[in-house]
């Protein structure tokens, strides 16, 4: 028996498996501390990297869901790597935008609450009313300000441009998909944020990441449902697909 084969078999012996599992366990235990360090010392880059990973994973799930069940003897549609790469790129920029937004929004909400406490002395940080007002203000400006701007200027046009859509068709693309995305965002993120804002800090990253993967898969399905075909069709034919877009969005939720 060759030495390499003997070494491989020895590595699979029961006595070596616990050692390998213990090493993997130790490395896994270091991940939260490593991620926390990166967030502290390289916040913007870590936020962008995380958002890119979530966007790529969300698009992968969306592609798997969009594939029709293959019948016997039929070939399964291949995975579109280029589409996922474009979503990873979208996520990188999106992570930077949301990180900067939350930094500004937190300061704005804190300023508003500080002024409110001067008028209402009973409004203190430890009271339930304070938590309710802070959560309401955060959700309000996210939904009415940040979401429309980021979706219209980045999330919708960028994947369309990277898929080959002509620049002249981008305004219609944004106009037709902005409302479905805002409605879907409200249905996903308002309940999620109500939970995230009111659970222990150590659980927030897990819940937010899981929600973001689901959200990114919905975004992928919305912005790509007609992007590939629209890029090859005359502008006059685009409007006939709007009902299909809304139906597809409703089916995702």
From TrEMBL:
Chief place of localization: membrane
Cellular-component GO terms for this entry: cytoplasm; membrane
Domain of life: Eukaryota
Membrane topology note: Multi-pass membrane protein
Keywords: Membrane, Transmembrane, Transmembrane helix
Xref: Pfam families: Mpv17_PMP22 (PF04117)
Locations listed in the record: Membrane
Family of this protein: Belongs to the peroxisomal membrane protein PXMP2/4 family.
Name listed for the protein in its UniProt record: Mpv17 / PMP22 family protein
Organism name: Nitzschia inconspicua
């Amino acid at each position: 028996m060759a030495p390499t084969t003997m070494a491989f078999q020895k590595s699979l012996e029961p006595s070596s498996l616990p050692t390998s599992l213990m090493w993997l366990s130790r490395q896994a235990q270091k991940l939260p501390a490593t991620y926390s360090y990166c967030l502290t010392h390289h916040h913007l880059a870590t936020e962008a990297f995380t958002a890119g990973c979530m966007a790529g994973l969300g698009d992968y799930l969306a592609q798997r869901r969009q594939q029709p069940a293959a019948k016997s003897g039929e070939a399964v549609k291949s995975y579109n790597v280029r589409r996922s790469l474009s979503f990873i790129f979208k996520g990188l920029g999106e992570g930077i935008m949301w990180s900067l937004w939350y930094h500004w929004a937190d300061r704005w909400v804190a300023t508003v609450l500080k002024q409110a406490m001067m008028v209402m002395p009973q409004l203190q940080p430890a009271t339930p009313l304070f938590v309710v007002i802070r959560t309401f203000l955060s959700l309000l400006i996210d939904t009415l300000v940040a979401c429309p701007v980021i979706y219209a200027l980045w999330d919708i046009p960028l994947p369309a441009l990277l898929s080959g859509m002509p620049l002249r068709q981008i305004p219609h693309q944004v106009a037709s998909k902005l409302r479905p995305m805002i409605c879907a965002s409200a249905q996903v993120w308002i309940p999620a944020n109500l939970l995230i804002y009111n659970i222990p800090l150590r659980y927030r990253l897990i819940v937010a990441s899981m929600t973001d993967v689901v959200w990114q898969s919905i975004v992928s399905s919305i912005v790509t449902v007609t992007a590939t075909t629209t890029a090859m069709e005359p502008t006059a034919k685009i409007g006939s697909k709007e009902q299909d877009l809304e139906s597809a969005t409703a089916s995702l939720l």
